[in-house]
Amino acid sequence: MDGGTDIKEIYENVMNILEDLTSNAHKLQEQVLEEILKSNAGTEYLSRFFPNGQADKQSFKTNVPIITYEDIKPYIDRIANGETPSILLAYRITQFIQSTGTSGGQPKLIPMTAESFEKRMYEPLLADLVIKRCFNGSDEGKSLYLYFIKPEMETPSGLVVSLYTTFYFKTKSFKTGLAKFCTSPIEAILCSDTKQSMFCQLLTGLLQRDEVVRMGSSFASVLPRSIKFLDDYWKELCSNIRTGYLSDWITDAGCRNALSLILTRPNPEMADLIQQICEDKSWEGIIKKLWPKIKYISSICTGSMSQYIPLLEFYGGGIPLVSPNYSSSEACFGINLKPLSKPFDVSYTFLPNTAYFEFLPVNKDGGGKAQETRTIDKPVDLVNVKLDQYYEVVVTTLTGLYRYRIGDVLKVTGFYNKSPQFQFVERQNVVLSIDLDKTTEEDLSKAIMKAKLVLEPLGIMLTTYSSYADTSLIPGRYVLFWELKMKGRDDLPKLDAEIMEQCCCIVEESFDFTYKSLRKGGVISGLELRVVKHGTFDQLMDFYVSKGASITQYKPPSCLKSKEAVKMLNSGMVGKFFSSKTMF
Question: Which residues form the GH3 middle domain (predicted)?
Fold first, then answer.
């Protein structure tokens, strides 16, 4: 049997697996909950909810409360300080997974077990095979995946704490699996110096440019950062390729050893070609030009990552953007069965064997804002959600999370057999708040997407944004930070005051009735827009990375809570504008 037939059979098997999973969603969900209760009902945390020892689904839903991380944190802290994990779960904890902390607040520690890791491996494997099924020949070349780690920590009890990606990249599963098809040597990925790692990964990617058929990262925010790094270092990268000699400032022994096996000789022809491409004034389509065989770019670009879609489309030059799967530090949820969907239209299909899922109905008012009270109705099971309805997802896992509110709001867009498909709508948190107004991430994103349409005919691109509520004055106001560039080059656009004020007005017009009422009554001042120079948000990423975030998992904050972060963006400000809108 030839290789092509083998691959075809693998894809057919994958689709058969998906058919089986989604057709038996209800049965699998019942089995998952039964397994969790059978294993963990005797723990200190759960046993108090089953005084008669009857740990069935009905008792679980009647007695076990819906919680947030703060409710489970005392148990996590006790385990971290040396108490037995059996107070929360029956399985041995191999380590803690740390959430990034840049989108939903403070980092959280989530238990990881050998069993939960095995379940997590299922989702990305299926997602990858579904994607390859849609792109002929994508299984034959190499992947330029930009991956980075952060140093591990230890709890007082000796348990390792790390980001999930750091943990995963050190596993045998990664090293003997996906890593074998990456242009980046494992030594470069595991280099804790982000700058050296980035340089070496881009260098090896360029050296193997004719073999690269896929490009990607865990989150979309990494790719624009990588292109900016390339813009800053392409001359030095070309010099390394031209001479066959690695820059002296690359001092990491693993990187130097790995590169000695790849950068084996001078290649002036390749260096000249790369130089010619990079010297072009416009970097539109730069990814396609440098890696001409790329078939798709794989990266999560939904939710807060959607702000990077226009920039990736600009740099990609028509390369399809694929958002493969939806997961969090706490659990895996679903995969994208239609990889060719436009990024803003992506829906994920729930995998019913990864955790037990419940859904809190979320009411939407006429303005489209999700109401703060989300628990008026009882949660519904996976197979009982309704089309076009909004829900906040609640998970129960083998790792000690019981009826745990993830904080993400989803919209049901359809069904694949018995399993629902959904779009990520927003993270369940208010990002801006003054007085009675509470503006969510979704409200803010939609308003900014409308306002930026004014700039596009002028050739101006909004590359990224953030915000904060300025209450230093009375009345307070919302402040937006925008980083702008000219399409085709990094030049700062000429800022027309009238146009920028129009953007402010459009944002305010897009907010809900409560905001407009408070504006009209003078409780909130007119919105302020601060434009920052190119590269300022890279400095913001560096700031959060220095505080423990990972470039691989970095999620740009929609709203800034740190005074130091606000000060950093203010230092890059090149113009400020105010809404002249009068709210009637």
Answer: 348-427
